[in-house]
């Protein structure tokens, strides 16, 4: 099983089990709305749109978004929720969007972290390449400082203090997930302007022990 097919299978299972159903949008979605308003941008791509808890909030507040997700079950649910928007959604990675298409706004909330460090960087680079000059990339992803749970082992540690784990139990058992450091995005987005953050959102887990830390930032591509 490839690293990507493993994540596809895991997320199909989680969405089949009711993941995010009835959950409110992440507060970071309102941060995205405020930044988009200040920059005068609205036409965007939501990477990892899931079954719509953040996507619909953003669209209902005025953004003109398309969505892409590796989980066919997520896309089935999101199109069932809003059939009139069915043509906005695509199953796959960002590479499933025609290569020449670029956007004023690219959003990834808890998606640019799946896989190894190299796979995370490749995914981010693909998203950055779709941002038009002067446009925004909005990032929320796992961060160092998280009390990683459930059982896992650390598979990578980098000099910038980022690390990757492979879960040994739970819904992501057998899968790699990367945790960003403060220094890592600064290197990735060198030359881009941070218009929000970087910041860390640390909160107590709803399920399981300890805290969950998320790196949040919005970067503007040079015009």
Please tag this protein with its features.
about 220 residues, alpha/beta, Rossmann fold, seven-stranded mixed sheet, three-stranded antiparallel sheet, 6 helices, about 30% strand
What do you see in this structure?
The chain is α/β, with parallel strands linked by helices and 223 residues long. The chain has a single domain, classed as Rossmann fold (3-Layer(aba) Sandwich), CATH 3.40.50.150. It contains 6 helices and 10 strands. It has helices spanning 3-16, 28-39, 55-60, 72-81, 117-128, 183-188; strands spanning 43-47, 64-69, 89-91, 103-109, 131-142, 152-157, 163-167, 176-179, 193-204, 211-220. The strands form 2 sheets. A 7-stranded mixed sheet has the order 3-2-1-4-5-10-9. The protein has a 3-stranded antiparallel sheet with strand order 6-7-8, with no helix packed on it. Helix 1 (3-16) packs parallel to helix 4 (72-81). The longest helix has 14 residues, at 3-16. The chain is globular and about 40 Å long. The termini are far apart.
């Amino acid at each position: 099983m490839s690293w990507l097919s493993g994540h596809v299978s895991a997320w199909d299972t989680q969405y089949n089990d009711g993941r995010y159903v009835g959950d409110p949008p992440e507060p970071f979605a309102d941060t995205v709305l405020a930044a988009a308003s200040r920059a005068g941008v609205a036409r965007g791509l939501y990477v990892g749109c899931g079954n719509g808890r953040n996507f619909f909030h953003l669209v209902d507040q005025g953004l003109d978004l398309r969505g892409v997700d590796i989980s066919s079950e997520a896309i089935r649910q999101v199109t069932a929720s809003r059939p009139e928007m069915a043509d906005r959604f695509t199953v796959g990675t960002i590479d499933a969007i025609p290569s020449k298409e670029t956007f004023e706004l690219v959003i990834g909330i808890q998606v640019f972290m799946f896989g190894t460090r190299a796979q995370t960087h490749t995914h981010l680079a693909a998203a950055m390449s779709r941002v038009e000059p002067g446009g925004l990339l909005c990032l929320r992803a796992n961060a160092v400082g998280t009390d990683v749970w459930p059982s896992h082992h650390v598979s990578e540690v980098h000099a910038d203090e980022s690390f990757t784990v492979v879960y040994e139990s739970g819904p992501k058992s057998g899968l790699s997930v990367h945790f960003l450091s403060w220094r890592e995005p600064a290197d990735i987005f060198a030359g881009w302007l941070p218009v929000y953050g970087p910041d860390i959102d640390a909160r107590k887990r709803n399920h399981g022990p300890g805290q969950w830390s998320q790196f949040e930032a919005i970067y503007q591509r040079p015009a």
